[in-house]
Amino acid sequence: MKCFVIALKNEAEPVLSAMENVTETSAYGKKIYTGRLYGMETAVVLCGVGKANAASAAQLAIDRFSPEAIINVGNAGGLCGDMRAGDIYAVSAAVQYDFDLTQPNGGAPGTLDEFEENYLPLSVAAGFMTVKCGTGDRFNDSREDFLLLTEVLGAQVREMELGAIAQVCVHAGVKCYAFKAVSDVAGSGSTTEQYRANLQKCALALSGALEKIVKGSV
Fold it and tell me: Known catalytic residues?
């Protein structure tokens, strides 16, 4: 079985609309959808926004479904000027940029206490351009965060869940795949206004790439 962990219903809609024989349940405050997607048993857990929500949902998905892979799809802010709204990228590695034990532990920003490297690797499906992703519990236009993400960490996209999902998957020994649709691009105006204006474009892009995403996440 494959299991999607997705933050918001609008991000999950491309998956849910393609599923057959869908059943909705809930556990620990998370909505869970099960059914078949391209002939495969599939589950979707809506986690909600932020790292704590994402980690708890990923662990729930692993405990309940014992999936062969966790797949995260959704929107992300682009940090490179040549990105365009609706572009789809596979994520090769994720870092929690708002986690910092540099002072007591040394090492690079984002290095979790139980790891030696700050970026956690993800599995990557063939046929997609790849990016590194910064995850943090912030949605903003902060210049300080932009410089940390780009100049210090070398991230190309940012969002609020994937780094925590990847952390859970590494500990559980479960493959983790992630695919992000660019909803806004740094330096192109208000992040919030871009995000709201491009939600439909991102949903259409994810819908168009969904079969490739599912069949490539093996």
Answer: 11, 184
